[in-house]
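Quarterly update from the structural biology core.
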Amino acid sequence: MLNGFLGNVVFRLFDALPSPPLSPFGRPGSRQTPEKMARPFAHKAGVSLKWVKSISVRFCPFESNVESTRHFLECVFARKAYKTNMNCDVKTEVRHDGSEPIIDVTFVDGEKLIMKAANLTIRDMLDVFKSKCELRDLKS
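Predicted structure, tokenized:
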């Protein structure tokens, strides 16, 4: 415990220090990039696996361009998405070779969707994925 004169000096020094700036979300020191601000919450992404037979995701976790691929996996593994098709086979292949992240989707009718996710945002991937699924909804 600091008592007396020394304690008053220490507390006055801490009072004089500036407080850290607040981010838009109110947490000190958190930096929000446009990618993080555009990231949807997995349970609100609205991903439906109804017409999907399998999803294969390959990426190197040590590369800087795999963040959106991980967010896509988060959306696919969400409980709400899983309930739309419990027979959908989701495989994740983690490599350590510096390879480009690739998402390979096989639909029930045999058509394939291959997304090279190095330069895609999560919004881009979800928009393409949802449009392909909605196209199958219209056909049926």
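The first helix runs from residue 4 to 16.
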